[in-house]
Amino acid sequence: MAFAIWVVIVSVINLLMLELSKNIILGWIIAIAAAVAMIAIRIIFVNRDKFNKKKGLIMWLAFIAVILLNLSLTSPPYKRVPAVDNKNPEVTAVVHVKQGDLTGVYNEDKSVKVYAGIPYAAAPVGELRFKAPQEAESWDGVRACDHFGPRAMQPVDSPFVDSLFHILGYHDYEFKFGDEYVEELSEDCLYLNVFAPEREAGDEEKLPVLFFIHGGSLKIGTSSYTEYRGEDLAKEGVIVVNFAYRLGTLANYTAEDLKDESLNGSMGNYGLLDQIAALNWVYDNIEAFGGDKDKITIAGESAGASSVNALCVSPLTEGKFRYAIAESSGIVAYEPYHTFRSVDKALEEGEKLREEFGVSSSAELMDIPAEDLINSESEQTAITIDGYALTEQPYLTYLKGENHEQALLNGFNAKESDPFMMDKEATSENYVELLREVVGDYAEEMAEVVPADWPERDQHFVIDKLGDAKGALNTVYSATWFSYSHELWNNYLIAQGKPCFEYYFTKTNDSLSNYHSGEMPYAYGNLWRHPGLYDDEDFALSDIMVKYWANFVKSGDPNGEGLPKWEMKTATQSKLLKLDTTIEMMDDPNKDIYAVIDKYQDSLKAEQDNE
Known about the structure:
Blueprint: H1 2-20, H2 25-47, H3 53-73, E1 78-79, E2 95-97, E3 100-103, E4 105-106, E5 112-119, E6 142-144, H4 159-170, E7 182-183, E8 191-197, E9 207-213, H5 231-234, E10 239-243, H6 248-252, H7 270-285, E11 291-301, H8 303-313, E12 323-327, H9 343-356, H10 362-365, H11 370-373, H12 394-400, E13 408-413, H13 431-439, H14 443-449, H15 470-496, E14 500-505, H16 520-523, H17 536-555, E15 576-579, E16 584-586, H18 591-610
Parallel strand pairs: 1-7, 3-6, 9-10, 9-11, 11-12, 12-13, 13-14, 14-15
Antiparallel strand pairs: 2-3, 4-5, 5-8, 8-10, 15-16
Helix pairs in contact: 1-2, 2-3, 13-14, 13-15
């Protein structure tokens, strides 16, 4: 009996490993069969009086070997993610775009048509690896666009680690059949997705378009991510587009010798150029899906919001969109804290990359496998001034009033930085030194504004034993890294007399709460994809946010009938909208922090001007 119990325990652990590693169903069958065989052989040996410790040890070794071999041989295959969740979806009518004819699929209630995996540029492979995106190739026949395209090449965790992250972090892991695969990775990643509402016959009014850029530090991310799928926003009469773009080294590697190969004399910024290529494709083709090319709003979260900021100042995007939505990031500071770097820094990191792989030219990097390049130790997660997509620091363009957005909806969350600070200990003794990393010589002044004994933040992530000043540190880092850029961005638009609306997301929940990206499933209407994690208050807030976002895309103003009033920011109205169970205008809680950051940024500029 004890032997059988141990076999069952080991087998259950094995089955759990198979589930969390997304192994195919055959692995489960082999695991169960091995456990049954183990017990049966033991019974047969005992009944025949032929069992001894040596045979028992051999049986256990054989059982463990089968388990390990099974885990290896039944590992999940790489596949593309289906465009919709419903099985055997109905196919749409044929749509004609510049490259050819295509079809999409309907969601379950046939309220939205999803066209996934549409190529918007040629595959950036081979000789095109470190080049600006080229026009997409045409195809014959009708292309079935019923699966999302591959993820761009990026560092990935094992399926097991990813499952643990969803259990311990997002709290949204589901035990189910049908997900025994890993999303495909490929350099051939330049595909976009269109979410369009089903409309009554004869309704030919062109719809406004939301063009969404995913986040992920310009290093990771996928257009299939459930948090920003566009089905629910489309139901509000908006066409939603999202897409993949090159990431990491393949997107941001910069070197002088790349100019010789470039038709425009630029270097680097390939991921940003991919985004511009996708925007151009939408501008040229969206009318085929019922969209209005003259009513495009660009939107993004985190690094996607920084990208939105870049598109607002790029000379290549003028006239291609109307409004901008930016969630939790921007690059309009004199020296942005992330996502943007100087040309000198970009070239320095490019040199590190070549040294790491023992090559002397960019041409030699073409022979290095993409899997190795994306895992480089050099920093390749920021855009730069390439003289083509970006011709100057973004703040200079705003000072001139030459930025393109006609209105802005933007904001940040209550605890933006906390998930990124989990391993950083902050005590009253080292607090000022840690502040020095983000405000330099103004650390002492910042410590007066946010003392080390600042009230502890309610933590969804465990921070025990990380110091008595942890809450204070997270408060300052959230403001510097994420929300400060929104303060500047709004102020520039106020000076230009353009409408801007700022939010502050504070709603707690059992998933991402009000940490970085926690607002995403609310704003894009995807709470329903996470059963059990959100309550009626969450869904009520999401309904309002979806309407705010949709209204803004339609008119540049989020307000509408039945919605709490969202006041526009002006020279005399500095409040932002608190998004929570109660929705109300309130003062920005970080105003005093921004004043210190201003001084630090001014000192950087003065130092540069004096050189």
